Sequence to fold (377 residues):
Amino acid sequence: MGSIGRTARQPTLRGTRSLVASALALTGLSLLLFTAPAEAQGTGYLVPAPGPKDIQKTPRYDCETPDAPLISLDVKSKYRQDDTARATIDEEAEEAYSEAVEPLRNYVKALVKIANAYVRSEPRNIAASSCALAWLDGWAKAHALTDMRTRQASHNQGQAVGGIAMAYLQIRDAPGLPDDRKKRVEAWLDRLGHQVMDAMNGNDGVSSRNNHRYWNGLSAIAAGIAAGDETLIRWGADSARVGIRQITRDGTLPLELERAKRARDYHLFAAEPLVATAELARTQGIDLYAENDKALSRLVNRVVGSAVDPSFFETATGSRQEPYPGDGTVPGSRIAWLEIYQSRFPSPQAEALLQSKRPVASSGIGGNTTLLFKGKD
Fold:
C-alpha cells in the first residue's frame, strides 16, 4: 500500500412491534415529517475530557487480553457469483467467509464495548479508557489489518476501520492516557484510512458507488478526525456525497434496489454509514444532512416506513423481501444509526421504531448509539 502521507494534527475540531407496526402502517410516508434539528442529548462520538471531580477516585476495570492481531485477510464474497443481484448466499462460501472474518468482528465488537463502558461510567472510569487504548495499541504495534489480499478483504477493512476509530474517539480525551500510545494508534488509524481510500480510488466497479463506498468513506472520515488528517476527512465526506447525490425523490438508492430480495435490508445497511458520516462531518463544519435538498431525510423516511411493511420494496423490485430472522422484525443493530438521526431530527415514527429495540448498537458505528446519542441506555 506504500507509505502514508500524514498531515499535521489540527489543534481543535471544527465544532464539537405490534403497536409499532400499527402506528407505522396507519401513518403514510407523506406524514413522516421531520421537525427542525434538535440538539443531541448524549455526547456523540467526540467525548470531551472530564473535569477533575468527574473521575472515579479508585477506577477499576476487568480488562481482558484481546486475541492475536489480525494482520492479513484473504476472503471471497459469501454470495453466489452467478447471481447478478448478489442476493443469494452460497452456504459453503459463507462458512469460509465467516470463519475468516470472525477474529475481526470479535475484536471490533469487544473494543467498542470497552469504549462504551468508559462513556457510560459516571464519574468516568479511566481504567476502562486505559483498557480500550491497550486494545488499540496492541493492534497498532502489530500493524493489524494492513495486508488485505482480495477486494472482499478490502471491503471488510472498510467496514471495520470506522468502528475502531470511533471507539478511539470516545476515549481519546480521557485523562492520563500515554501520549506515545495515542500517537501510535493515531498513526495506525491514519495508515488504515489511507488504505481504504486508496483501495476505493482504484476501484472502477459498482462498489465504488454503492454501500461499499459509503462504508469506506465512514472509515476514512473517522480515521481522519482521529489523526487530524484533512485529506481523509474531505474524502470521507465526498464519499457520502456519492450516495447522497443518488438518493431519488422517493428516497431510494438505485444501486441498492438492484439487490432484489435484499433491497430493503441493503437500504438500511447503506443508510448506516451515510448517517454516521453526516454526524462526524457535522463536527467538522460540513452539513451533509442538507445536501441534495435534504436527501438523507428522504432515505430515512423510506426505510423507517418500510421497516415494518416492505411492500414498497417488493413493488419496486418485483421480489418478496427477505424476512428478518427470529421474530421477523428489523434487528436493533440494523437501526442503530437511526438513533443518531433521531437525536438531530426527531420524529414520532422513528421513535416508535426505536422504542421497542433500545438500546440499539452496531460495532461498525461505534457501538451503543442509544448511549452515545440519547445519553442513557
In short: Strands lie at 72-73, 147-148, 361-362, 367-368.
